[in-house]
Design a protein that fits this description.
The chain has about 130 residues and is mostly beta strands. The chain has one helix spanning about 105-110, and strands spanning about 5, 10-15, 20-25, 35-40, 45-50, 60, 70-75, 80-85, 90-100, 115, 120-125. The chain is globular.
Length: about 130
């Protein structure tokens, strides 16, 4: 059974930093990409950042480029999202998602998750 467990969310002031972690387990099939997604109240879930499992290609949403960094520890089967210079508009529930379908463009992968974690709340105060 596939399990994705996020941690690291919380309340932070604008300009602060957080590191989210997603521990993955239960995969019997190779996944093609893993990444972070977020959903703010009243908005659709959006892809924040994804990383390809095969070659490490990375996608960042324009709104987080230069502030967020995705990384992974294959030995620990964990993916991280380092978030710096946080803004109130970054407030959302952040989800870890895994893509199992093949894709060509890494940005496409960030629209194809099959498995989701339970989410972790990130709140940025102004």
């Amino acid at each position: 059974q596939v399990q994705l467990v996020e941690s690291g969310g919380g309340l932070v002031q604008a300009g602060g930093s957080l590191r989210l972690s997603c521990a993955a387990s239960g995969f019997t099939l190779d996944y093609s990409a893993i990444g972070w997604f977020r959903q703010a109240p009243g908005k659709e879930r959006e892809g924040v950042s994804c990383i390809s499992s095969s070659d490490g290609r990375i996608y960042y949403a324009e709104s987080v480029k230069g502030r967020f960094t995705i990384s992974r520890d294959n030995a620990k089967k964990t993916v991280y999202l380092h978030m710096n210079s946080l803004k109130p508009e970054d407030t959302a529930v952040y989800y870890c998602g895994v893509v199992t379908r093949p894709f060509t463009l890494i940005q496409t992968a960030c629209t194809l998750p099959r498995y989701w974690g339970q989410g972790t709340q990130v709140t940025v105060s102004s």
